[in-house]
Amino acid sequence: MHQHLLIDLPLYKYCTNIVHKYGIMKLLIINGPNLNLLGSREKEVYGYQKFETVLKKLRKHFHDVNIEYFQSNVEGEIINALHNAGFLYDGIIINAGGYTHTSIAIADAVKAIKTPVIEVHISNTFAREPFRHTSFLAANVKGIIIGFGMDSYRLAVEGFVSQFL
Question: What does the alpha-carbon distance between residue 108 and residue 125 come to, in Å, rounded to a whole number?
């Protein structure tokens, strides 16, 4: 199974001045539908960890980064979260789940905001059903990380952090 790491760098020129003004980077992780069931659903695909465990590890490892989290199964709530965060954060990490392959509205929301976005997927979507090979978000994000399991989120945070070293 192939794993993909696609990042269009440098992101720093797109980021807000929060890091430079306050000395701390502010990131938001947005998880879409069914990702509230991580650790209990399709463990052979998504693993055994609950996302809260992963989030705790991320916050511990990146202690100098303010990592906030939002999860919703509702498309409109995800769009509202993007709109609310899209001009205030240094970066957004989004796993839109099944909406990746269906939501032009979420893709348009990503396109409309100033904050750079990295799209992540836990599984290698290209090794799965053909409908998962398409991402409507892809054209509007700065990079995509696919297939590294829960480590995809760490790689995305590192993608943002490396721009400010």
Answer: 21
